[in-house]
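Researcher: Quick test of sequence recovery. Tokens follow.
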């Protein structure tokens, strides 16, 4: 990293993922870390344990956001900004670095809408720095460089509902099942719904094919713009299989409308997580498989395996921020990982952290990372 100390604000910095990011950042002596969240006592407690500063921050209060941003160089956001995204907009206005792990399409659209303003203020932003989106995007970017002109990008995501991050992840999946999402097909965006389509596929190294369901992640809506792909799809498999069958069944019979209520989603998510944690195959295994097919029919694919969605999300964010800071930040603007992150170095960092990323098939590289 650069010699000058960087002041890093980790918002939601004492949560399941945020606490791990805060600790990783605080381990770098050239960084000055501030742990921020609504509960000042929790911020101070974690900060005291890791040698950081703790502050209170309400992301929906403009004065609170202004105070937090005034002493920051880089902001890492680990919470949902369901409101006006004051944190994102304030960071861009001040010309700061901004990193967000969100998987919510609405924020991606708001962030990309600030791209030109960020270029004027000198701010740089990275949206989707976690696992999925995040690691999977870098895998897609690597495959796109391999084939030169990608026609189709397919992403397969396997998660265990017994993971410690499970309840929040399941609640997010239930919320996604209530909404339509844009999917890239034949060069245009079409409306689709999570868990409505299904396919059978076998990951490399596995003996049997498993059932995968369509799932709406924001990255697939942007691959036409960032990687010039014509088609993109994401498929999700949950273990144990009854969990995904339950959610798909709710979608199929129209019961997803009942899950528009946040309270119902949270209660159902808790039940699913508790049951999954005590049943076979309900652990914390994670697998990502990204297959990129070029317009000439040649292809490249990458497989990643590890454990603990929360831990891998934190490590991915840390590795991305580390790479960007060592380069002096990204160019001004709002970017996504498949554009801003150099794959080989990122994969090396993730392997050291326990996520093994393997290139399974390749063609001669036709484009260099820029």
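Model:
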């Amino acid at each position: 990293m650069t010699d000058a100390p960087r002041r890093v604000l980790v918002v939601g910095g004492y949560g399941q993922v945020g606490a791990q990011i805060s600790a990783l950042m605080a381990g770098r002596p050239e960084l000055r870390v501030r742990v921020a969240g609504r509960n000042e006592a929790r911020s101070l407690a974690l900060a005291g344990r890791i040698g950081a500063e703790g502050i209170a921050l309400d992301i929906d209060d403009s004065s609170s956001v202004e105070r937090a941003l005034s002493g920051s160089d880089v902001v890492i956001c680990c919470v949902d900004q369901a409101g006006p995204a004051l944190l994102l907009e304030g960071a861009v206005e001040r010309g700061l670095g901004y990193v967000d792990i969100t998987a919510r399409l609405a924020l991606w659209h708001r962030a990309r809408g600030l791209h030109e303003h960020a270029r004027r203020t000198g701010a740089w932003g990275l949206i989707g720095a976690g696992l999925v989106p995040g690691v999977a995007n870098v895998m897609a970017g690597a495959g796109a460089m391999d084939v030169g002109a990608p026609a189709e990008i397919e992403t397969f995501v396997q998660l265990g509902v017994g993971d410690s991050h499970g309840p929040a992840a399941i609640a997010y999946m239930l919320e996604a099942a209530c909404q339509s999402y844009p999917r890239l097909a034949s060069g245009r965006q079409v409306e689709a719904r999570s868990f409505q389509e299904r396919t059978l596929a076998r990951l490399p190294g596995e003996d049997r094919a498993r059932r995968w369901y369509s799932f709406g992640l924001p990255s697939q809506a942007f691959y036409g713009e960032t990687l010039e792909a014509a088609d993109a799809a994401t498929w999700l498999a949950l273990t144990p299989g009854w969990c995904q069958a339950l959610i798909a069944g709710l979608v199929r019979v129209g019961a997803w409308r009942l899950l528009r209520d946040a309270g119902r989603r949270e209660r159902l998510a808790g039940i699913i997580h508790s049951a999954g944690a005590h049943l076979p195959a309900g652990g914390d295994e994670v697998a990502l498989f990204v297959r990129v097919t070029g317009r000439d029919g040649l292809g490249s694919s990458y497989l990643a395996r590890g454990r603990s969605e929360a831990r891998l999300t934190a490590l991915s964010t840390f590795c991305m921020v580390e790479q960007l800071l060592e380069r002096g930040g990204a160019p001004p603007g709002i970017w996504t990982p498949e554009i801003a992150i150099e794959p080989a170095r990122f994969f090396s960092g993730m392997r050291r952290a326990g996520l093994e990323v393997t290139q399974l098939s390749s063609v001669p590289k036709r484009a260099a990372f820029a």
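Residues 91 and 98 are 7 Å apart (CA to CA).
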